[in-house]
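Run log, item B.
One chain of 286 residues. Sequence copied directly from the ordering sheet:
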Amino acid sequence: MAQVLSGRKKSKLRASAGSFDSVTIAAGLVLGLAVVLAVFGPALAPYDPSTIDLSNALAGSSWEHWLGTDQTGRDILSRLLYGARPTLLAPLIVVIIATAVGAALAISAAWTGGWYDSLVSRVLDILFAFPGLILAILAVAIFGTGLAAPVVALSVTYVPVVARVLRSAALRESNLPYIDALYVQGAGTFSICLKHLLPNLAPLIMVQATIAFGYALLDLAAISYLGLGQQPPSSDWGLMISDGQSSILGGHLEQSLYASILVVVVVVSVNLIGDRVAQHFEVEQA
């Protein structure tokens, strides 16, 4: 019995022996720096991001303002540092909610089977048909601007993205011999799912959550860009891209450019890490 447990193989979930390459390490450092900025950004910012100085509007880079100022004289560097927290925290909340609910539905459906599995599958199919961005805009139209409504709406639409992949993996995993061995040993259903099935699916959950984070960040940045998310004088990166558009024709593209670069760099870094984790654990992505 112990040999069955210790010798079991996690199909498509085995860790490979390869080490992470330099590109992945660089992506991890970039993402780590973004997290540091999100945590300590307000303490590092040289100015209040909401302070308006019209006499210094659209100033170029200088010792006083390293990245220049926007159309109202606000320091761009300070706004980027303050904006890191809401920009990264909101998609993180989306991923946590979607992953927790999606994993619970997927594992319970795969384990229970029958009518419950069919019901969960149909509900996931219906939710999957809704475009996340459209549902988020609809939520804003009903509940008002801000990040709360889009975060909840995107969390709902991201649940099937996570759950459908996890359900297939959970079905395969639940049919492996070690599950029967655990039953023979007297382990209960909840114990097997929580202590064995869930940990064995952890690499796949990690990959799905990582990829979902990048898409959620883009969706929320787009919502803020449209003026439906964070509202002025917030320094959300998506809102900064929108605010800086009016100055681009005048040759002052700094605010939109720097905010856009940060969004792209963070999303690319997250996707690179997710892809490398999938390769490392030999995770099959749907």
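Observations after the first pass:
- The chain has eleven helices and no strands.
- Confidence is low (pLDDT under 50) at residues 1-19.
Flagged for discussion on Thursday.
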